[in-house]
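Teaching assistant's notes for section 4

Start the section by putting this record on the projector. Ask students to predict, before seeing the second block, whether Endosomal/vacuolar adapter protein YPT35 will look compact or extended. Collect guesses on the board.
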Amino acid sequence: MASANTPSHSAESSESSGRPGLLVLLPDRIDVEEEARFYDDIVDSASTVGGDYPYGQDDSPPLSPHEAQSIFSRDIWLGDNCGESQAFARNVEIAGWTSVGDKRGGAYVVYDCVITMKEGLTVHALKRYSAFAQLYARLRATLPANQQSYVPSLPPKAPLAKFRPSFLDRRRRLLQHWLSAILLHPEIGGCQALLHSALYLLLLLVPTLRVGAAYDHLMQTCRFLYEESPKILLRETVPLKTSIQLSGFLTFLRAQEGRLAFVRSLRFELLDWEDEGVPEFFIHLPLMLNLHSLHLTHGERLFQRDPDVVDIIAEIPSLQELTVHHAGFETTRLLKCLQSHLVCVDIDFGDLDDYPFFQTIREEQYPPFHPLLILSHSMASLTKLVLRQWYTHSEITPDPDLLYPNMRELEIHNSGLPLIAPFVRACPNLWHLVHRAGLESRGHPLSTTETSSLLEGYAAHRAHNISQQASFDRTWDQLHSFSGDLAGLYVLGLTCPIERVTLHLNCEDWPAMLGPSLFYARPRYLEIRDLEGRSSTNGDASGWRESLRALLSGEVGSRMEQFSGMSDILAEDQPATESILL
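Reveal the predicted structure now:
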């Protein structure tokens, strides 16, 4: 609860020099309910928007000391102090505490939080310890990983001492330190979770004020938050999954001129193409001059329904990150005619009405659709490329002059048996490689003949990849990390050292693949995951044990410093351990 009068243990209110009688009016076009719903959607979804696929770069280091720079410089929003502090508060104090109710009948303690806004208005809010815990949880759920360390730990609970004055005074000081560290922080002090709390406090305060200086200060603060909050809110990805979300987003954009320029990231997942808001959305799209990330979950269906959408997206000059799932021919047309230079691309050609694009054309038609050719417009800028069910020709390679000097991450998922040499030649500075072969299981135990035929096919493709790297006289100097399944590493036939290898076993992996896969890699750090699923892999424990022992005692193990994940099968009668330092 909040009040205009200062309760016990409160600090003095700060006065502003605003003119008496100043009345600040908000535009009458504002749909308050729609705006509130949109704010809630963004805040609630911030922690859920992200990658939907496994085998990503979960523990790899930064891309490079020379990462691509963002198009948003620190002075682009000079008027809203984004280059300095985004916090809405300028002073925080917890002035005291008081007990509410009877100790024998469910009493609790509330703390008097005194928050002074940038405009000079002082707000008192009485909050229980649980409110701080809820805010802490919300910050943990919504803040990006690089800001998590800025959130200090809350003081611990002490049920047996919660009414002792000495304990309460100590907790008051600790909570004040915690709240100050959050609200006054130049970055997280303006995040959507805190902004949502600030607006709630102000709404509770409105009925208690009369026209006068305090009322003027409140309205000025409301105006400040109303004008500045979209700039902060729209830095997060806007999810558009339903017609209600789309309607709320469009209403939010109409409410104030200029909001389109603050949109930076969109995730469009709507399936209802007949929704009346869809045409308006794509009319607004070219006006989002700072849009740098676009995710289209049903890309090809959308492009087929309205081919003009391809041209609309292609003309967005600021686009840096593009994700298209359910891709097809129109998606390749979009990638070739983009005006912007992409930094990150994630394309999935799978599951388009059960007829993936590369199943509708013959292999001899694959070469013009090689990703290195399709994305050549962004050769100088591309740093990360994710390919899902993007098949390439098994013999024909693209132009050898293609060069992606800034490519640091490459992921290939469920794309058959790719030739790796074109990527080695075009991406000499690659840092992190993911390959999940994703080869389909036959759905029944393989006979000896089938197993032999399968392994022969893998071995033949591996040999072809090795010979191509030799004929091009080119391999990566040293990859920092590889992640994927064992069959995926085996068929690539990489001939370079790899610092860190993480393998995920599945039903296409065999113990005999382990030694050859790591012969050239000789990683310092090896992790083999999904131990609990080893029953679904091929070969019994003794086969894996023999392969692992041979691996660790041979030349591959001579460089290894740490191995983890399958140490429990190295000895039949010894307890499992998480890792072995070698």
